[in-house]
Amino acid sequence: GAVHKFEGIVTVFHPAQGGPCLRCLHPSPPSAEDCGSCAEVGVLGVLPGLVGIYQSLEALKLIAGFGKPLIGRILALDTLSGDQRKIQLPVDKGCACNPC
């Protein structure tokens, strides 16, 4: 999961179950200058806790084997508008996580 200002994202990276890895999403890590710190850009105080709760639920789904974990999908949370959306993540065929 990640947070930035008023937005949070939740996902599960599990290439062994056919999902993409973090490098499929970000082939090159952004530079430190491109990513402001929480102190610089600000984060809504409750948002890290909310994303953490969602991540805990995703871990329980994997461990206990119930529900449909967010493998290959991102749950994007916008706390200003209250919107939630799911975004499909493709596997990068050229990534090292791809067994083909």
Summary tags:
26% helix, 100 residues, 3 helices, globular, 20% strand, single chain, four-stranded antiparallel sheet, alpha+beta
Describe the structure.
By secondary structure, the chain is α+β, with helices and mostly antiparallel strands. The protein is 26% helix and 20% strand. The chain has one domain. Strand 3 and strand 4 form a beta hairpin.
Quick take:
By secondary structure, this protein is of the alpha+beta class. 26% of the residues lie in helices and 20% in strands. The protein has one domain.
Topology, pairings included?
Layout: E1 2-4, E2 7-11, H1 22-25, H2 38-41, H3 47-64, E3 73-78, E4 83-88
Antiparallel strand pairs: 1-2, 2-3, 3-4
